[in-house]
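input
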Amino acid sequence: MESGPCGSALPANEHISGEVNGSGAGVSGPASLLGPTLVLRGELSFKEPLVIQGQLHGSAIGTGSIIIEKSACLSGKISAEKIQFERGALLDDVVLTGRIQRMSGK
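output
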């Protein structure tokens, strides 16, 4: 375990995917999830919706939509058709490309 820039000890280089239903971010049906305890360093490409709750340091480039939840910590390039982010998400040196929408936090 290592300490990430968000201040918590998290395992590195893990990925899960599956159904995300009613996540509060308006996603229903198949989606990929980078959960709150996961850290990904490198390049991530995607076609279906992607929900980020954990840490991403690198790039996420895809044709689907991306939802950045308030627990997320990101650095790098994010490119998608539609990017939604909750107030409170930690965005450090991030370049966003696409239709951007800020969601109200809970």
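quick obs: The beta strands are 2-3, 9-10, 16-19, 30-34, 39-46, 50-52, 55-62, 65-68, 73-86, 90-103.
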